[in-house]
Predict the structure.
Amino acid sequence: MSKVLMAEVNISEGTDLSIVEKVKEAFLTVDGIEVIDIDSNADHNRTVFTYKGEPQNVLEATKRLAAKAVELIDMTKHKGSHPRIGAVDVVPFIPVREITTEEAVDIAKEFGKYLGSLGVPVYFYEDAQEKEYRKALPKIRKGQYEALEERMKDEEWYPDEGPKEFNPKSGATVTGARFPLVAFNINLDTEDIDIGKEIVKSVRAAAGGYTYVRAIALSLEEKRQVQVSMNMINYEKTPIHRVFETIKSEANRYNVNIVDTELVGPVPIYAIRDILDFYLRISKDFSIDQIYS
């Protein structure tokens, strides 16, 4: 059985779909890549490319994708509701089959060295980072692109690869290896961002919520809604249904309803099994093998 690695590349462009298409064309020139999902969000001004394959093929595809994104995206003109520090904002590599975390870290570090050679400052995170204070993505991205130039002057925030000088056009990139993450968004029928921020406190780890949930409130101006945007970094320890029910309960306090939800990118099948267990009270005799496509 061959090794399979997954990449989830987040670029800071979700409004100009001609740029997104050119970036897509660049990485699809590599053979042996299976595209799982491409998700562009205009409010976030962000696109997430998710694909998998043999590790060296995934590495080569990611290099080509990143090079094209760095060429085409100008961060000095970027506006969007989602936190970001660079044109190629964050690039996690996720072990899928017959590949160790250590091997995924090696791929991330090779990619980081390549991107650094293009003049982009690169930070390693999660399992690819040895320094505890800069393992978590929110800590690296604190202040976002607008604070990056000043932050890079601090020796504690020198990049791991690439130049130590601020790159205004491309910003910086975060890359590493991690456990499969679930990107889960809940959209609310209110335009009041302050309500969204209060609801976020009920689930966000940093505010005393769930340890494995990172969350922010975003305004979706075109939809006239507020979004609770979350990264669930360990769905085994904090399942999706628990977070959904907590947000639904908190929203009711403000006479706010959930309009809909979004799962961005791939979702591990065992995370879906948890949802089936909770909402359908499904028998323990049910097997994941009963699910097919």
Remarks:
- The mean pLDDT is 93.
- The chain has two domains: 4-177, 182-290.
- The chain has eight helices and ten strands.
- Residues 55-72 form the longest helix (18 residues).
